[in-house]
């Protein structure tokens, strides 16, 4: 059911959930049944402020709601849902496939590499009717899933290479001669959405400097109060929370994947002293940076 124009569209942190991003990785991969069966195969219409979904339907079907339109897709099909697009799914109970979720820093990096040919900025779906299309896309998704679940040396490099190859393949499908143009851009509050997207781009460029919200709002061309209102309305968090979430994600990544000391991590993220960084980290994770690093190393 599509939400009414007066009802707020929920903002999810992950596919079907309001919980925080579960890992320091910039990529999350799981089978579609893993989570959708917990929701009786239906994910109600929602949006993500800073995540991009790529779905591959290997078996079964899905009723896709995308920016107010409904599409019935049978396997084999691929779906791309960019940040801020309103979308919902109703899967058949026999569905098989995967959903890959990209955090905004990785999605922006891939979009920069591919330029305007990238398929990550606008919603799209592809019916993979040709055998060679199915083989290429399915093989890449299977490799991503296997590498994601069984970490090994060079994991992050290989995952980035595989996801880049997948995005290239999907972008080619979207630009193929004769390919129907089904792309959708978010409809609601277009100007406000542009402001939030510009703000998120500024965060990605300047988060290590920990700029003030007033300065960032000025760069966007709005007041800090208006920016906060837009962020809460469209992203479900305040402007400061969005900045802090990016800092926290990078702190988790550095603590997990580098040998930098706590002080070095603190300095690299613009904190005036390690004690302030430790308080910030513990307030947001309930763990000290040292305890978080220990737990991550034990679980790898």
Automatic annotation (TrEMBL):
Entry keywords, A to Z: DNA-binding, Transcription, Transcription regulation
Domain (HTH araC/xylS-type): residue spans on this chain: 197-295
- Classification via CDD domains: cupin_HpaA-like_N
Question: What PANTHER family has UniProt attached to this entry?
Answer: ARAC-FAMILY TRANSCRIPTIONAL REGULATOR (PTHR43280), TRANSCRIPTIONAL REGULATORY PROTEIN (PTHR43280:SF32)
Q: How is this protein named in the record?
A: Helix-turn-helix domain-containing protein
Provide the species name: Vreelandella piezotolerans
């Amino acid at each position: 059911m599509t939400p009414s124009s007066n009802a707020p569209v929920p903002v999810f942190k992950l596919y079907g959930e309001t919980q925080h991003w579960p890992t320091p990785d910039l990529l999350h991969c799981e089978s579609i049944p893993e989570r959708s069966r917990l929701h009786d195969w239906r994910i109600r219409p929602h949006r993500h402020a800073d995540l991009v979904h790529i779905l591959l339907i290997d078996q079964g079907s899905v009723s896709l709601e995308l920016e107010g339109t409904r599409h019935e897709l049978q396997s084999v099909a691929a779906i791309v849902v960019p940040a801020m697009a309103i979308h919902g799914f109703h899967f058949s109970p026999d569905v098989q496939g995967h959903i890959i979720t990209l955090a905004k820093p990785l999605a922006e990096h891939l979009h920069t590499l591919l330029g305007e040919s990238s398929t990550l900025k606008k919603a799209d779906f592809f019916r993979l009717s040709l055998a060679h299309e199915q083989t290429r896309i399915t093989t890449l998704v299977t490799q991503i899933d296997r590498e994601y679940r069984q970490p090994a040396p060079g994991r992050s490099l290989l995952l980035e290479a595989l996801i880049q190859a997948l995005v290239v393949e999907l972008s080619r499908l979207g630009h193929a001669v004769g390919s129907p143009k089904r792309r959708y851009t978010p409809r609601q509050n277009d100007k406000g959405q542009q402001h939030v997207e510009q703000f998120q781009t500024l965060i990605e460029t300047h988060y290590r400097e920990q700029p003030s919200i007033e300065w960032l709002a000025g760069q966007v061309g709005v007041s800090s109060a208006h920016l906060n209102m837009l962020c809460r309305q469209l992203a479900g968090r305040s402007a400061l929370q969005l900045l802090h979430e990016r800092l926290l994600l990078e702190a988790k990544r550095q603590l997990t994947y580098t040998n930098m000391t706590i002080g070095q991590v603190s300095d690299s993220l613009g904190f005036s002293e390690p004690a302030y960084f430790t308080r910030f980290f513990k307030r947001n994770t309930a763990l000290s940076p040292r305890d978080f690093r220990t737990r991550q190393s034990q679980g790898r």
